[in-house]
Design a protein that fits this description.
21 strands, disordered C terminus, 4-stranded antiparallel sheet, 452 residues, 8-stranded antiparallel sheet, globular, 10 helices, alpha+beta
Length: 452
């Protein structure tokens, strides 16, 4: 459990709170690239980290996040007209380009006053980058702006990547913790056998396919053993379950600072998945999802299934609100729950959301009763709380802030002898003790950066 003070430290991301301040030193996904589908398309409202912005794509195709407030009289630029290299306020026609330069003030005479006034006016903009199907924004001090994190999926052709997002009515941290908790896979996402979730190897006959075999291992062993390696970017979390006789089934995930996670499902050659939990405020967050395959294009069937809500992706409406949500009890089917699936809720993403939102917007961690199956969650809390305290007390930022290549990591599954230690498992599965992907930064002696 956590004290109330540490729970507040973990969950509060307002601009004056330590976690909120630290988050602002890291690039955050702000929206999907396809939300601004073409040059001079309508602007989009964006709110993350308690900050309201407007996203535009200008005539050249460049995406940019800007303040919503027109410096003339404070009108909201969301209602503005995107045109010819900029956005024009709907109130009095003041026009700005994506760098915040004032291009036109039609309410002044065109006798030199207009040009003189334009030079004095500057619209606030936020550093913006586009990569991997996301539009990213940086909200911290510009003099300490890092490079965009070099995730593997951001360097691949677009046909090898699929991205999505969904709205979640919970604090970012409990959504993150849900993803790092591999123990719940034996329950929350489990189909039933003869109406029962069976434990014990004598109660489940594995099929020949990889999916059925690993499903059986997860079903039969509900108490994974954890091995966790701390590194400069976060944590490698290995959850070991009994597999066939003499073997261990490893599900290996990554937590990457400050709010990314890589899922533990993939065997070699399979699609990889990751998520980023971006606070909107302390009680809601956007979950940005990314699926990629470094070896091949995603098939039309795979993309179609992701669009309909397969794997980590949710079925959403046009505003990225899940169709199955807390307001309709996630369309839970009690007969389905009794006979076919553990929850009776359709969709892995929706099953996660149902439980995470059921805790309330901010779970009270002072009342928890943790056990060995929660070790990954415990280590996540220690890691990020240590980081935010070092930032708040000493002005130190994690090493990953200044080393984009540290983010080029992988996660996945592996089956091997039960006599192999975790570090050897990592080398056998990934060829590197931390699952470094080709092109990543390999170092273990980086020093934290000072904020001042």
């Amino acid at each position: 459990m956590l004290t109330k003070e540490k729970n507040d430290l973990l969950t509060q991301t307002g601009p004056e709170r330590p976690m909120g301040k630290m988050f602002r030193f890291f690039w955050q996904p702000a929206l999907l690239s396809r939300e601004l589908p073409e040059p001079d398309c309508p602007p989009k409202r964006v709110r993350i980290l308690n900050t309201d912005m407007v996203a535009i794509r200008d005539t050249s195709g460049r995406a940019q996040l800007i303040t919503p407030t027109c410096p003339h009289r404070g009108a909201n630029l969301f209602f503005g007209r995107v045109e010819e290299g900029g956005i024009r306020c709907a109130y009095h026609g003041w026009k700005f380009d994506v760098d915040g330069n004032c291009l036109d003030i039609p309410t002044l005479p065109d006798n030199g006053q207009r040009e003189k006034m334009c030079k004095k006016i500057k619209l606030e903009t936020y550093p913006t980058r586009e990569a991997g199907g996301f539009i990213w924004v940086y909200l911290g001090p510009k003099e300490l702006m890092p490079e965009l994190p070099d995730f593997e999926f951001t360097a691949l052709p677009s046909d090898q990547v699929y991205v999505s997002k969904k709205l979640q009515y919970s604090n970012w941290a409990q959504a993150c913790e849900g993803a790092l908790d591999t123990a719940h896979f034996s329950f929350l996402h489990m189909p039933l056998v003869d109406g029962k979730i069976n434990f014990g190897k004598d109660q489940f006959v594995a099929e020949s396919s990889a999916d059925e075999r690993r499903l059986g291992w997860i079903r039969n062993d509900g108490s994974p053993r954890f091995s966790i390696t701390k590194h400069e970017t976060g944590l490698v979390i290995g959850g070991a379950r009994y597999a066939d006789e003499g073997d261990t089934y490893w599900r290996i995930s990554q937590f990457l600072m400050p709010n990314h996670g890589l899922a533990p499902n993939a065997f070699p050659g399979e699609n990889m998945h990751g998520q980023c939990w971006v606070p909107i405020d302390d009680e809601t967050c956007w979950i940005f999802n990314y699926t990629w395959n470094p070896e091949r294009k995603l098939s039309e069937d795979e993309v179609s299934r992701f669009q309909k809500g397969a794997s980590i992706h949710a079925e959403t409406d046009e505003d990225y609100r899940p169709i199955r949500n807390i307001n309709n009890d996630f369309m839970i089917d009690r007969e389905e729950q009794r006979t076919k699936t553990y929850t009776g809720i359709k969709g892995v993403s929706e099953q996660d959301a149902a439980i995470q939102e059921s805790m309330g917007p901010i779970v009270d961690r002072t009342k928890e009763h943790l056990n060995s199956s929660d070790l990954g969650v415990v280590q996540f809390r220690r890691y990020i709380l240590d980081a935010v305290l070092a930032f708040d007390n000493e002005g130190l930022l994690p090493s990953a802030h200044s080393h984009a290549g540290l983010y080029r990591l992988r996660s996945g599954s592996h089956v091997c002898s039960d006599k192999i230690p975790f570090e050897e498992v990592m080398n056998e599965r990934f060829g590197h003790r931390l699952a470094l992907a080709p092109g990543g930064t390999d170092t273990s002696a980086l020093t934290p950066a000072k904020t001042a």
